[in-house]
Amino acid sequence: MLKKSIRFLSLLFGATLIAFLLVSFAPIAPVQQYVASHGVVSSEQRKEIAAYFGLNQGLFTRYMHWLFGIFHGDFGESFIYRMPVLQVIGERVGNSFLLMFSSWMLSGCLGYTLGIYMGMHQDRWIDRWLKKMCLFLSSLPTYWLGLLLLMLFAVRLQWFPVGFSSPIGLENHNVTFEQKIYHLILPMLTLVLVSFSSLALYVRQKVITIMHSEYMIFAQAQGMTTWQLFVHHVLKNSLSAALMVQFTSFAELFGGSVLAENVFSYPGLGAAITAAGIKGDVPLLLGITFFSIIFVFFGNLLADILQEKIDHRLKNGRRRQCGNPSINS
Amino acid sequence: MHRTIKIWRKYCLFVSMICCIGVFTACGKQNSGNQSTSSSKEQKQEAIIALSNVSEPENGFDPILGWGMDASPLIQSTLVTYDDQMKLENDLATDYQMSSDHLTWTFTLRDDAFFSDGKPVTSEDVVFTFEQAKKSQAAVDLQMVDSAHEISKNQVEVRLKKPQITFLNTIATMGIVPKHAYDKKYGEHPIGSGAYELVQWNKGEQVILKANPHYYGEKPSLSKVTLVFMDEDASYAAAKSGQVDVALVAATQAQKKISGMHLEDVKTQDNRGITLPVTPNRGEVNEDGYPVGNNVTADPAIRQALVYGLDREEMAKNTVNGFAVPAYSEDDGMPWSNPEVKVQTNLKHARKVLDNAGWQKNKNGILEKNGEKASFMLYYLSGDSVRQAIAMDASAQAKRLGIEIKVTGSNWDEISKKMFSNAVLMGWGSSNPYTSYLLFHGSNKLKADYYNPEGFDNPTVNNYLDQALAAGSQAEANEYFKKAQWDGQTGTSMLKEAPWIWLVNIDHLYYVKDGLDIGKQSLHPHGSSWPLLQNLDEWCWK
Prior knowledge:
heterodimer
């Protein structure tokens, strides 16, 4: 546990330092980006803006200042939004979380179900078709797929809105839950389509291994039906493995949601992190990096715990000298 | 047998797919029909306008942090404002006086102005606005202001550090905020005395505005306006599916037609031009240590040849489908712009100038003089397709003269180091003539602010610009600004000195739903989102 904590803290420190150095050395002219769309700004005023951004201080001072703030729970103030970073993140995290959580659940269910189905029908025509489809989908770029869905379902067919999280021109108190869900569908679908297939392929492989194992052949020989086989053996043995894979996919999920949010003008962290990167808003970028690291680390930690549990079970199984771990557990 | 089943399966799949597509499209058509009829009935007083997603003000609708400075603050009102000819007229102020030393301005406020919360606009609010804006370290540049004082309930006195007539232009876009309702969160819940009030702002999505019932001016015809922020692709998609009434479109994309909408082509002073270092490279550096000067562009003959040798009409056609007009100065069409500065493309003249100056073609067709090739780098902001196209076209056209322009895409950070010794493609276009001062006054040369990287410094011009700022009236100032461009002998324009080669003013293009009248648009400055809404109170459905 201590080892994990140390690893976590060093990861946080290292990743935020790298993010800080990257954005500091990136060829961005933050003041020019900031004033670009505003009337006439003389060089005297530009110097004041630079002072506000803290650009007149050294790199080391700026990073230490930020780090020192973190220990006090102060994430600083975003340059471009001129608001505390936590507030900027707080305003947007809800939408992003809803998007990520729903697509994570859906892609998990879909990927797992398809994977089981494919594995249990190995090498039949439907398995071959689905496998091809999965390989195809998993190699699609999120942005491109998003645009395609947008053009087909929002522009051509007009089944779904072209973007946003609620209807255009409607005041918040009139927006219903159904409308929120309705606006969520396309970006969610984009994320699901690009992410479920890797899980499906993984589960398929896992199921095939199970189907070819000795205990499975034994069970089949005993005359168990396909449904019984599935419930008693396949489900138990593949579920935790699938969950593990799904938990480790948090990083891709986060990256994908940034892209999907941009395509569908969905107001989550995606737009904020894009703006922070383009305009050199160091505190905001570091703040979002900080929390995304926690998010991804948390996912991996859960996967680790699951892995340990599985290992544990496997060890128990071996100790009892039995070919079928699931029967013993 | 097995094979026939396989083929039969494939056939079934194919047929079902075709059926699905058929059903989808049928539904789609039905839907769009319904939507357009229902919306046109309801929207007689409403409009939905798609703006660029980068134009959403991150700081909120707070004039003190720069909101409205590029056009009009909409929600707040200003002491003075522009008419559609870009002349200043009174707004919140019913009158203003300038002291004889041109340092003190006294504004008299109208007594029928109220904020949207019903409280009156007083001189206290005006003074508060000036004080806050001065110390905000944001994009409102009130460096010229010394202090602001309340004289009476409806009179305010503003003292300047030195005479500056363009102070009026600066405050023409600076909205007045209420002292009683201003705090750190003001930008999210602004209260103002403008034609519209903010009902709701969903960040990253939309802004809902409705007509301010307390507004002292004429009631706008559109009682509810929703602004949505979208990137180019999403905005096109929204227009095509009938979900918005107005959508921005880039000049490179505007040939596409959308049924039920027409293309509005608004003329601008949103110019693009090339800055050319006017001093030779003597190994000098500027205050930040970046190299200054360029031996090729410092030759007046090279600059003159480019002035007459580049065909701007052709460039407009080649680069933005003709949605641009030739540019001849930094502020074509403004009341302070000199109409005499136009030039005619004349390749013969351009060649003669080069010939007279001793430039001769080498075996590769590039001009040479004393062993120096007529070749220089031209930087542009990469990622901006229009700038790229213009830079490439300028390079191709210059080749006809034997001048080699090496085009390089880059970012502002790198350009800010290279711009003092290389040519850069830049753009301005502002409703404030102070821009001309910053662009061409010697005191502002070679600074990090991108205005005068070419190092232009001409005593006569400096003198005119100083006199313009110190002028006692707008009209007087305009005359000096015109003289700074061309007084018959010298000036900042392309007629002689040509520190800039002005190329094109790019039109701002919008898909507008048939029946929506967007009023008489004034010449737009740089930036196509907010300037469109400057006259939102004149818009109506026909």
